[in-house]
Design goal:
By secondary structure, the protein is mostly beta strands. It has one domain: Neuraminidase, CATH 2.120.10. 8% of the residues lie in helices and 45% in strands. It has one helix at residues 7-35; strands at 39-43, 47-51, 59-63, 66-69, 75-79, 87-88, 90-94, 100-102, 107-108, 116-117, 123-128, 138-143, 149-151, 158-166, 172-178, 189-195, 201-207, 209-214, 218-227, 231-240, 247-248, 259-263, 270-273, 278-281, 288-292, 295-300, 306-311, 322-326, 333-337, 341-345. Strand 18 and strand 19 form a beta hairpin. The longest helix is centred in the N-terminal third of the chain and has 29 residues, at 7-35. It is globular. It starts with 6 loop residues before the first helix and ends with a strand.
């Protein structure tokens, strides 16, 4: 009896093997997508979504008013709970498992203020207070694995501004303290840098200063002028990391603002925010180019090739949308999430 031709059986076996491989690869990709994220946003109902950088594979990780992804995309810090409390505990959530730890103090919840992640995603630097009234603000580091806080030195004055920024080499922290007399209407602050190894403090400049942003060679920050009666105008200034070379970069019209958001990794690009929009600031010349008049800047990719921002619908029920905008002149813009604000980006 002639032998049966095995080619058909072999082909069927190979086909089944190939399908199995494809399924396994798809499962692995899905698992990888759930293990880390590139973007987080706030949706209605204080729902925090994380997703890939193109907006796909979105999933809910918790409830808060603002979120901050770690550089590796595996952790996300949530602030504000499920309502807009003046101050709220902070949770650090594992994107893959959903497990979380809670920091022990209270942290400003409503405003999209910015803490700073260490580059290895193991520590979060922020400002905490003792109670819901905002008493005794202190600069702290938070262990991302345990939630344990360590109070850091900040010198005289009241830590304020809420934004902190970590140097590109991970060794120094920039922040602002209020030097005004408690209860005074005066606004007088100091820009300080803390060496995280030696714990040495350095005051770089005093004035009406806020929102420090570390770059490779300079620190950008906001400088304010004006009074409550006349209104305030905010510009972006830069200073060398040793305190020299102070210069006001931008020249906003009266009652307008240019607030620094972030440098690209090479320091060649600086993203700025206006009251409702986004601008590209040249850190060398101070030249300003509008990226959007209606999408407010939130974060610049470390490559400098694009930014994330959000529009404001004027409605708390249906907030604005989150967009991705290319840095290049005339660059493309892409709608990533409808009814989503306060985006953060892993690096």
């Amino acid at each position: 009896m002639p032998e049966r031709d095995p080619s058909a059986a072999v082909l069927r076996a190979r086909c089944r093997f190939g399908v199995a491989l494809i399924a396994a690869a798809a499962a692995a990709l899905a698992q990888a997508a759930c293990a880390s994220a590139a973007i987080s946003v706030t949706r209605p109902g204080s729902r925090i979504l994380v997703a890939r950088n193109d907006g796909t594979h979105a999933k809910t990780v918790g409830f808060a008013t603002s979120s901050f992804l770690s550089p590796n995309g595996k952790l996300v810090a949530l602030r504000g709970g499920d309502h807009c409390a003046p101050t709220s505990p902070m949770q650090i959530v594992d994107v893959a498992s959903g497990a979380s730890v809670q920091a022990h103090g209270f942290f400003l919840g409503c405003m999209p203020n910015h803490p700073a992640w260490s580059h290895d995603s193991k520590t979060l630097y922020s400002v905490r207070v003792d109670d819901r009234d905002g008493a005794n603000p202190r600069l702290v580091s938070v262990n991302a694995a345990t939630g344990v806080e360590t109070v850091l030195p900040s010198g005289n004055g009241r830590v304020t501004g809420w934004d902190v920024s970590l140097s590109p080499d991970g060794t120094r922290l920039a922040f602002v303290v209020d030097l005004s007399t408690p209860g005074s209407l005066a606004f007088h602050t100091a820009l300080r840098v803390l060496n995280l190894h030696s714990r040495k403090l350095q005051t770089l400049r005093t004035g009406k200063l806020l929102s420090p942003v570390f770059g490779p060679t300079k620190i950008a920050f906001a400088v304010s002028r004006g009074t409550p009666a006349t209104g305030f105008t905010v510009d972006t200034a830069v200073i060398g990391q040793n305190g020299g070379g102070y210069r006001v970069l931008t020249h906003a019209r009266a009652n307008r603002s240019f607030t620094p958001i972030g440098f690209s990794a090479n320091g060649a690009r600086l993203l700025g925010a206006t009251t409702t929009g986004s601008v590209a600031i040249n850190p060398r010349t101070g030249a300003v180019r509008t990226l959007s008049r209606t999408i407010r800047a939130a974060v610049l990719a470390s490559s400098g090739r694009f930014m994330l921002g959000y529009s404001d619908s004027g409605s708390g029920i249906n907030p604005g949308n989150t967009w991705r905008i290319a840095w290049a002149r005339g660059g493309a813009r892409r709608l990533l999430f409808r009814h989503a604000t306060f985006p953060s980006l892993s690096r």
